[in-house]
Amino acid sequence: MINGAHVILYSQDAEADRAFIRDVLAFPGVDAGGGWLIFKLPPAEIAVHPTEGAPQHEFFLMCDDLDAQLGELRARGVEISRPVSEQRWGRLTAVRLPSGAELPLYEPRHPVAHSL
């Protein structure tokens, strides 16, 4: 029986991004050995979108109140790397990880499945 999902973020500065997830986002985690941290994620959901191009995968964090969440992140010194945009499915932005990569964050305006 499938009992979870394991998401992998590839990073050019994995140690700094792991510290960000641990210290700034405050996700609890385990040390799988040798400082290799694996974090507990909030409840998740998966969607499958059609594409004409090469298949790809995306990872977004979700929140109930984007403005409040951005305020908390700014107070912790997090760079908001994209202005909030209104999409038909929700409000979207992204934060900058220490490695320079972006981590998208959105407030859904669609029914969510993560709490079913």
UniProtKB/TrEMBL annotation:
Residues 3-108 form the VOC domain. It comes from the Bacteria. Transmembrane segments: none annotated. This is VOC domain-containing protein. It comes from Streptomyces olivochromogenes.
